Amino acid sequence: MGNLNRALEFPTTRRDPESGYTLHGRWFDDPYAWLERLDAAETQAWIAAQEAVTHAVLRAVPGRDALRASVARSARHARLSPPIPAGPRGREFLWWADASDDKLKFMLRRGQGAPLETMIDPNTWASDEALVFAVPSPDGALVAFGKAVGGTHAAVIHVLDVETGRLLPDRPRGTGHSSLAWRPDASGFFYAACPEPGEVPAGDEAHWNAIYEHRLGSGVPARRIFGDDQVKEYWCSVKVSECRRFAVLSKWDYVHANVVYLLRLADDAFVPVAPTMRSLNQVQVIGDSLLIQTDLDAPRGRLCVASLTAPTEWRTLIHENEDTLQTVAGIGGRLYAVYSHAASHRVRIHAEDGTYLRDLVLPALGSVNRNEGEGIVSGISGAWSGDEVWVNFMSYVQPPSVYRYDYATDRLSPYHVPDVGLDASEYVTDQVWYESPDGTRVSMFITHRKDVPRDGRQAVRLSGYGGFNISVEPRFSALHAAWLKLGGVLAFANVRGGGEYGRAWHEAACKTRRQNAFDDYIAAARWLVSAGYTTPSKLVSRGNSNGGLLVAVTAMQAPESFGAVYCRAPTLDMLRFPNFGHLSSATVEYGSPEDPVEGAYLAGYSPYHNVRADRRYPVMAFVSALNDQVAPPYDPLKMVAKLQAEGTRGGPYFLLPLRDSGHGGGTTLTALVEQDVDELSFYCWALSLGLAEPTG
């Protein structure tokens, strides 16, 4: 650990001893609350001074140029989506980029064999501007797209005329535009947004999300058609059915439950399907029937069917089983059900009446679905009235790839499998099971080179999430590839709070049961040591978003278990999180600081409130995305200040600010590569790794 003995001069931080508040009769110091004012000159100067120390360390790491080359080799490759049919004579749109593009472009092909034409090229925009979504109209004549600045949230809708290349003057009302669906006649579209500033009380600008309808060229403000008038924290999403008769409207209580209505487009009548907020439901219109995927009375999910004449009278079509049903896609008259089977995906094909037909065999252990703002989105796509089946797939060692599936021959054919300079045959992914302190069995994926010895000396990067019903399933990243090529081991623990094993697994770590997730994660770190993979000094703990909270809490509770911690875009002050943006809606997950019981529980593990001078904490890096609109970007600042002042037996503790970055990172591939290089440099410095040249 020679690196850690190097003297580092961090800037002094002003401590305000009078700053704090009383909650449930207890005084809580908040001496660094002044850092929440990100635009203040004092805060900006402090960030710059901290950043200078961090960069001085990371940019001096030997082999950094080789790390950059390794990351870039796995990040810069051609990217291609399945086609999106829209318009006459085989017109289709798609997302595409070559290895030199920093951002994905939205393309048009006017028919089979026709050349690709660029419709929207965000590479020509400012570097901090992002193309968040693009949705062609049903006739293929227009494209509505979302453009955001400094991240991928708070998009603004624009409308492009495909033939002229000009933007329409339309500017839909509201802020944070998302989840867009066109009317079948292309006269307008539905979208989700928050109200205009001034339409809600100050401080509520990130709330009262609703579905609006914008009519093109009308000059009339978009009308609000669906939302909630009582609960400001709910958010909404919209789709239009393949048959184009209905808009499917959903209102979400975060990821815990949602209600679903149909809007009959012929007369704008509302049709209730799941009118009460008690389960998670995804609804599709298939002919005169509704397919309802739900966890109502089925914690691991089931598929139901209902008639359009009696939409709330459901009948089970595919029963709950031991795996977790994540999505169902109706394609070519068949049902493609994607399950989480021990935290990786399995695809089962059923007939329209629910009869099991066969499994769609995937290339390897990996994942098909993805998590987005509208919950879990199926990686199987196609039309009920068509016969093309598209399959997205990736693993820890295979990048996001697209396959075609032919049901008649039961054949999965590669359509786009990028070359990322990683030979998957040289690596192995094992799934192990270990016990948490309360006896619960928890699964963990471990990926490494096949010839790695179990001699207790390997550098291991352990990650987890543990919240919001989000599953940790096999995912590829350029950083993962570079770490593996260095000889590192990747470990991903499927701790409670995630969605891998259904509603019960998620709820086992909600609110005053959150400690279960922390216990599961600490147990994973200790298992990796006891199983001979590594030692604590060679184990780096990495978490993002809610995973950042996970790694920070576990570092506070079991500092001896980790050699280093990389905590990215976290929430760390668990008594103040409802004050930031839309995070008051996360009380359904974390509990409320205002509740006497839940508030005391939050105070018991809140990282910012549990720094102890008598503990030797590991070296830690706290990463703040300064344009973050999901997690408080000032929480990492406050945490670093407190640790540097009070956790003096351990550390050091670094702040790494991400400028022009939102919750998901930078808006360009170049920025993302550089962020990955910083992260790998931190691992190498903190774990005192002797860097060999990356292979591949």
UniProtKB/TrEMBL annotation:
GO terms for molecular function: oligopeptidase activity; serine-type endopeptidase activity. One of its GO terms (biological process) is proteolysis. GO terms for cellular component: cytosol. Residues 475-686 form the Peptidase S9 prolyl oligopeptidase catalytic domain. Residues 11-416 form the Peptidase S9A N-terminal domain. Its EC number is 3.4.21.26. It catalyses: Hydrolysis of Pro-|-Xaa >> Ala-|-Xaa in oligopeptides. Keywords: Hydrolase, Protease, Serine protease. It comes from the Bacteria. SUPFAM superfamilies: alpha/beta-Hydrolases (SSF53474), Peptidase/esterase 'gauge' domain (SSF50993). Belongs to the peptidase S9A family. This is prolyl oligopeptidase.
